[in-house]
Structures are given as C-alpha cells and as structure tokens.
Design goal:
Keywords: Membrane, Signal, Transmembrane, Transmembrane helix. By secondary structure, this protein is α/β, with parallel strands linked by helices. The chain is built from 13 helices and 8 strands. The strands form 2 sheets. It has a 6-stranded mixed β-sheet with strand order 4-5-3-6-7-8, with helices on both faces. It has a two-stranded antiparallel ribbon with strand order 1-2.
Length: 299
C-alpha cells in the first residue's frame, strides 16, 4: 500500500479535480480560501461548536454564525480523503464507538451490520481492509494508558506508521484505579511516546487525535461501584489531568482533542441509556470534526 499523505490528496483536489470538488464541498472559488474562513487556526478552535435538536432523534449541526465552512462528510468524500490510509484506533468502548461511526460513513448499512458484531467482541482487537480504497483499519483494545504507551513504542519498531491515530482512555482507570494523579502520570508517558513517534516519522507526520472522556450521568450508571467511583467530581479531576499534562496541541502536545465531553453534554442525558455510552449522533459529530480538522491541518 502506498504511503498516504493528506497534503498529496489536497493537491490532487486543487488541480485535476478542483472543479468537481467545488461542487462537492461548496468551496469558494479561490484556492487561497480553501474551505475555511477567516483563518484555519480560528476555525479549528470552533470545530466543537455544535447545536443539537432532539426530535424525533438526536441530530447535530454546526453554528453557521461562526463563519467557517465546515463540511458534513459524505461517504464518497470521506473515502477519497482517506484513500490509501492506515487508520489505527486504540482505547476502550469510546474508541470502538468512534470507529463504528467512521465505518458507518465509509460502508453501506449492510456492511456495517456485518462488521459490528466483530468490532464489539468483548475485550478484543479488530482489523478491516477496504481493498478498493486501499484503506486499512485497526482497532486495538487498550483500556489502560500503559496499553497505549506500549502500543506507541511498538509502532516505532515497525517499517510503517499509521497515517491516522485515534487514542483515548480513562474510564477503566477511573473505575479500577481511581487516582487522578496516577492517571496524569500515565498520560505523561503517552505524551513522550507519541512525541517520539512524531519525531521519527520525519516529514510524514501522522494525524493524532485524543478522545476526551464523556459526561457521566451518575444516576444512570449500571453498577453501584461505578456510581461510587465515577462521580462528576472525579471526572473533573481526570479532565484536569489531561489539560495539565500537556498532551493536547493547544498546550504544544501531539494530540488534537476530540471533545467527547463537550459533545455529550450538548446532546444531554436523554442521549444515553447507561450514563456512559451515547447515541450514534455524538460519535458521528466527532468523526466529522476529526475529518474537518485533518483538512484544516493540511493547509
């Protein structure tokens, strides 16, 4: 499989297929204003400004007043953007749900129904290839931060690195270890491993995203242990560790945040049945935020 670069894909769009892309993305006619206005960095900071409606089921849209031409990706556009890419997601059930949302975008409904049981096989890894698009997709069950650190170090020993990394953890740590400071120290290890991977990838830097923790609706959690340990106060402490440890690009870290917490707060408690896992629309929004961020980053 050829090494994938988003910048190469963008250049292809802006040359041979620029006219069709304008129709597809509703872009302005000048390539100097490619999709985002007034500035890419400003628009990147506005990606999570989502509005929600709940009738008859949760749906989302971007706030049109923010003057950024964000795109709601179609299957064809997502497939073209990711053509030739190796996508690696690692983490717990939140990472599975995010990857499922990406598969819903890339595959038809019958294909999604076929792959979903394997993707959600308890505590297992998953792999899928889409030969017609050259896309390779891996999910690695990595519920603890040490699992992710070991994965990043193992990747450095391979001849090829993923083009898109989607990582996240914290729920298992909160339930089974219940120590924000310990969680923060583990995040620092992830940061060092990710920075090392980024440095060794020379000019072909992978796109790295970190999944934020969802809002926990304590009264809806399905065990007493979860209700005792996974409180709002504890969630805030874990979120503070993410901010303090500098893993996010806003603090010079390697990861762009996919703010699942903000999205789940926006969707509300009627979007969850167990206080932890949310409606498909939440993860669909996160996938579109991720893909738009990749376009912004490519400029």
């Amino acid at each position: 499989m050829a090494r994938w670069r988003l910048s190469r894909r963008k250049l292809l769009f802006l040359s041979v297929s620029f006219t069709s892309l304008l129709l597809f993305l509703h872009l302005p006619s000048s390539p100097h204003h490619f999709a985002f206005s007034p500035t890419s960095s400003l628009c990147n900071s506005r990606l999570h400004r989502i509005s929600w409606t709940h009738s008859p089921s949760p749906t989302w849209s971007w706030d049109k007043s923010q003057n950024c031409d964000f795109q709601r990706f179609s299957s064809g556009h997502a497939s073209e953007l990711l053509r030739g890419a190796w996508i690696l997601a690692a983490g717990d059930s939140q990472a599975r749900l995010l990857l499922l949302a990406l598969l819903r975008l890339l595959l038809d409904p019958a294909q999604v129904s076929n792959v979903e049981p394997d993707l959600f096989r308890r505590h297992s890894d998953y792999q899928l290839t889409l030969p017609d698009r050259g896309i390779k997709i891996d999910f690695v069950w990595a519920p603890y931060e040490s699992n992710i650190t070991h994965l990043l170090r193992d990747i450095q020993l391979t001849p090829r690195y993923p083009d898109l990394l989607i990582l996240g953890s914290g729920l298992w740590h909160m339930l089974h270890i219940t120590s924000p400071s310990h969680y923060g120290a583990a995040l620092a290890q992830i940061k060092r491993a990710a920075e090392s991977l980024f440095e060794q990838s020379i000019s072909l830097h992978p796109h790295m995203f970190w999944l934020g923790l969802p809002k926990l609706v304590n009264s809806m959690l399905n065990t007493e242990e979860k209700k005792v340990k996974m409180t709002g106060t504890m969630l805030e402490a874990y979120d503070r560790e993410v901010d303090m440890r500098g893993i996010l690009n806003g603090s010079s870290g390697p990861f762009m945040l996919l703010d699942i917490g903000r999205l789940t707060r926006g969707c509300g408690k009627h979007c969850t049945l167990d206080g932890m896992h949310y409606h498909d629309a939440v993860y669909d929004a996160a996938v579109n935020i991720m893909l738009n961020s990749m376009l912004i980053e490519s400029q």
